Amino acid sequence: MLVNLVPEFLACIAAPDPVAAYHGYLDRHRPVLQGYWDNYVLDLDSPHAERVIADALRAERGDLERLLEDMDVERVAQDALARALELLEADCPVDLYLMVGVGAANAGELVVGGRGIAFVCLEHFTGKANPHTSGLGLAPHLLPLWIAHEVAHAVRYTSPTSRAALRRFVAEVGGYYDYWDTGSRASLRELLVNEGGAVAAARAVAPGFEPWEYFGYSRR
């Protein structure tokens, strides 16, 4: 299932009290956004969280506005999700969230209540680095690559037929993915297989890119 949170985030920016609006947005999507913050940003109870939120809400986002005008992001994302699930022969549901983050990860995976989730943060895919949002400036056409990568992780963590150690670790804590706890328990072999499988899925779903793009490196 595709879930597009971008309009809600933009509505927060336009609200009379953006910070209050953002906290309402957090509350409406607490399980997923809490997972995003805990795994990829910082603890929402941290004294630094409010500054991160305020900075994100006042950042200049002309690049994101142009992306949304020029590209049917929902269609691209839906097509990539469908291709990834078909190629992986997924036997479990995976939700894909389109988001505007706070300048942390460009994409990632979560498990919430036993359900696999992939997300992409569009501020990183505008094609132009933005120092105000910490946007990486990744090309928009890389979205399918990253969606496939994260969907592969989500399937591996939640499929009933997965033999991955990471699936067992997720199940042992009640069906939640904790990057710090899970990553520290997994062996190096498991982590390498996990990333290698995701890269292979990305290459199959979105062929034709350079190797460094699949690995998420910057070209120098």
Describe this structure in words.
It is built from eleven helices and four strands. With 220 residues, the protein is of the alpha/beta class. It has one domain. It has a four-stranded mixed sheet with strand order 1-2-4-3, sandwiched between helices. Helix 1 (6-14) runs antiparallel to helix 2, helix 6 (73-87) packs across helix 10 and helix 7 crosses helix 10.
Question: In a nutshell, what does this entry contain?
Answer:
The chain has eleven helices and four strands; from the N terminus they run βααααααβββααααα.
Question: How is the secondary structure organized here?
Answer:
Elements: E1 2-4, H1 6-14, H2 18-28, H3 30-40, H4 49-58, H5 62-70, H6 73-87, E2 94-99, E3 107-112, E4 115-121, H7 143-158, H8 165-172, H9 179-185, H10 188-205, H11 211-214
Parallel strand pairs: 1-2, 2-4
Antiparallel strand pairs: 3-4
Number of domains: 1
Helical content stands at 40-55%
Shape: globular
Strand content: 5-15%
Strand order of the largest sheet: 1-2-4-3
Spans with pLDDT under 50 lasting ≥5 residues? none
Helix/strand order, N-terminal first: EHHHHHHEEEHHHHH
**Rg on CA atoms, Å:** 17 Å
Structural class, judged by helices and strands? alpha/beta
The N- to C-terminal Cα distance equals: 37 Å
